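Recall the central idea of this unit: under ordinary conditions, the amino acid sequence of a chain determines the structure it adopts. In this exercise we apply that idea directly, starting from the sequence alone.
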Amino acid sequence: MSLSSHYTIRTYRPEDLPRLQEITADTFGAVSIDNNMEQRFGAFGVGDWKTRKVAAIAEDCRLQPDGVFVVETQEGIVVGYVTTRLSTVSRIGWIPNLAVDKEHQGQGLGRALLEHALSFFRAQGMEVAKIETLEQNPVGQNLYPSLGFEEVARQVHYAMRLK
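Accordingly, the structure predicted from this sequence is:
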């Protein structure tokens, strides 16, 4: 699938971070482990799940800025992103986060960002790509296999209140 002429993908720039965090806060609620825990146990830690998730995006951008890619409109508005990490030891390229603004979903932007990340992995000499999703994320469960990803394991997350 090719990207519509209305959008382009480019490498992350530090000034993109606030927009990436805004997209994250608006889109990850239904697929956030921390949000699941807050719903079960109530508030914990500093801020809420959004605070922690947007901090994780900042960390992705800090750790592998050349492996963060954004999709933007012709007008230069960032409407989605994918973050990546490279392991030169295992030769695994990992995709920690992918998000597309709700108003731009359903147009193939997530797929295009993933394909871009996979090309980046190949160019960097990675041998395997991995991505994770929650059972409650039907989009990921359909999209990832359609790109060639295969389920290799399931992980169960447990949590408990310590007070």
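The chain has a mean pLDDT of 93.
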